[in-house]
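quick q for whoever's on today - can somebody do inverse folding on this one?? i tried earlier but teh output was garbage lol. C-alpha cells:
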C-alpha cells in the first residue's frame, strides 16, 4: 500500500531548488476570532443563522500548525520565502490574540526576526521590523517584551544610524532611543542640500517617521524630560511647516499641537513668545488654496491644520469616538490621538479586535479588563450570529488562558495545598 502523505509535505522545496510556495495567512484562518470590524480578515456572510457550530479547539490547533510552519519558513534560504512567511505571521498577529502560542516561542521568533533583519534586504527588513512591533504588542508590557527589545534594540538602532542602509528599511525600524531619532529628524531643520549634494527631500519619508516615533516616545517621558525637549524643539519645529512635502507639514503641525498640550499641562501659564507668527503660519495652511497642489492634498491639509490651529490658539481638541463591539472609546487629546494612530498603523484592520481583547492595549488606553458578555446580553443587543460567535470565541480563549496559568509548570505546587 502506498504510504499516506505527511501533513507537512506542502512545505517541501519545489523542483530545481525553487522557493517554497508559502500559503499566506488567509481570510478563513482569521475569521474565527477576528471581530466583524476587521473586514479584511473575516467574512460574516459565512456564518448563517442555521450554520453549524465551529469546533474552536480544532480550529485553534489547525491555526497553530500553520503558524509553526511560517515560523520554520523564516529560516528558509530563499529571501522571497522568508518575506512571505513574515508577512503571514504579521497578518495573524494583527488579527488574533495569540499570547500563549507566542509566549512558548518568543525566543525562536526573536531569533528569526534578528536573522531576517541582519541577513535580509530592504523589504524583508521592513517585514521583520513590523513583526517585532506586533510581537511586543502581543506580549504586553511585561519582562518578556523587555527581553525582546534588549535583543532587537541594538540591531534596529544600528540600521537606523546606518546611512548606507535603504531608506525603506531605516524608516520601518525607527523604534529606538529618542536621541537616535532626534539625530535623524533634526536634519530636516536644514533647508539646504546636504554635503553629498543630495536634496534633503530625498530623506523626507525617513525624517517624518523619525519625528512621529520621537513624538510618541515623548508622551511617556517624565515631565522634567518633556520640558527639556520642548525648550529644545518648540522654536525649531515651525520651520518644517514650510516643507514642500505634505506629510512633513502635517507631522510637524501635529507634533506642535502635542508639544503645546504637554507644555500647558506642565505649566498652566505657559507662554510662547512667537505665537502671532506661528498662528499666522497655521492659519495660512488651514485655508491654503494653492492651485499647484492636488485637491486631495489641500483638503487633507486644511482639515488637519484647522484642528492644530484650534489646539495652539484656543487650547481645544475635537473629540473623536472609536467603536469596537459594544464599547466606545473617546480620543480627547493629542497624546491619546498620537498613541492611537501609532497602534492603528501597526495593527491595521485588527485594531478594533485588539482594543476589545488585548490586555496590553486596554491598559494603554485605560479601558479596564476585556468585557465578557453572556448569552442573554448578546441576544438583547440584537447582533448577528457571527458577532455572537466572535464574543463566545473570545470568552473561550480567556478561559483557556486562565486554566493554563493553573497548569503552568513554573507555578509553585505548594500554593495549592
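ok took a stab at it. sequence:
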Amino acid at each position: 500500500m502506498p504510504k499516506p502523505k505527511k501533513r507537512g509535505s506542502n512545505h517541501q522545496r519545489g523542483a530545481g531548488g525553487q522557493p517554497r510556495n508559502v500559503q499566506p495567512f488567509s481570510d478563513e484562518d482569521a475569521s474565527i476570532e477576528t471581530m466583524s470590524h476587521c473586514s479584511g480578515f473575516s467574512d460574516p456572510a459565512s456564518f448563517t443563522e442555521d450554520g453549524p457550530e465551529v469546533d474552536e479547539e480544532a480550529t485553534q490547533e489547525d491555526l497553530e500548525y500553520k503558524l509553526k510552519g511560517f515560523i520554520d519558513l523564516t529560516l528558509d534560504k530563499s529571501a522571497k520565502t522568508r518575506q512571505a512567511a513574515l508577512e503571514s505571521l504579521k497578518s495573524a498577529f494583527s488579527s488574533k490574540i495569540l499570547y500563549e502560542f507566542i509566549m512558548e516561542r518568543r525566543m525562536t521568533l526573536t531569533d528569526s526576526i534578528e536573522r531576517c533583519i541582519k541577513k535580509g534586504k530592504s523589504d524583508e527588513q521592513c517585514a521583520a521590523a513590523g513583526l517585532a512591533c506586533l510581537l511586543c504588542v502581543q506580549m504586553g508590557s511585561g519582562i518578556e517584551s523587555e527581553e525582546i527589545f534588549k535583543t532587537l534594540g541594538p540591531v534596529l538602532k544600528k540600521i537606523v544610524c546606518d546611512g548606507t542602509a535603504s531608506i525603506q528599511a531605516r524608516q520601518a525600524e525607527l523604534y529606538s532611543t529618542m536621541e537616535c531619532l532626534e539625530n535623524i529628524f533634526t536634519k530636516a531643520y536644514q533647508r539646504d542640500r546636504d554635503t553629498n549634494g543630495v536634496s534633503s527631500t530625498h530623506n523626507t519619508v525617513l525624517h517624518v517617521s523619525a519625528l512621529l516615533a520621537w513624538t510618541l516616545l515623548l508622551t511617556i517621558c517624565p515631565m522634567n524630560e518633556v520640558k527639556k525637549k520642548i525648550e529644545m524643539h518648540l522654536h525649531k519645529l515651525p520651520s518644517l511647516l514650510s516643507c514642500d512635502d505634505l506629510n512633513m507639514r502635517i507631522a510637524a503641525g501635529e507634533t506642535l499641537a502635542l508639544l503645546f498640550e504637554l507644555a500647558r499641562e506642565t505649566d498652566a501659564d505657559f507662554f510662547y513668545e512667537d505665537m502671532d507668527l506661528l498662528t499666522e503660519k497655521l492659519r495660512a495652511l488651514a485655508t491654503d488654496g494653492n492651485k499647484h497642489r492636488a485637491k486631495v492634498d489641500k483638503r487633507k491639509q486644511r482639515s488637519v491644520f484647522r484642528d492644530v490651529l484650534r489646539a495652539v490658539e484656543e487650547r481645544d481638541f475635537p473629540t473623536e469616538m472609536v467603536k469596537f463591539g459594544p464599547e466606545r472609546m473617546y480620543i480627547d487629546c493629542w497624546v491619546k490621538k498620537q498613541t492611537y494612530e501609532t497602534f492603528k498603523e501597526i495593527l491595521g484592520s485588527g485594531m478594533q479586535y485588539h482594543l476589545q481583547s488585548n490586555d496590553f492595549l486596554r491598559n494603554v488606553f485605560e479601558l479596564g479588563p476585556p468585557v465578557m458578555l453572556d448569552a442573554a446580553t448578546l441576544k438583547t443587543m440584537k447582533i448577528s450570529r457571527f458577532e455572537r460567535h466572535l464574543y463566545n470565541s473570545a470568552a473561550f480563549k480567556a478561559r483557556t488562558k486562565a486554566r493554563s496559568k493553573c497548569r503552568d509548570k513554573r507555578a509553585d505546587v505548594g500554593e495549592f495545598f
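fwiw The longest strand covers residues 320-324. also Residues 224 and 266 are 9 Å apart (CA to CA). so keep that in mind when u check it
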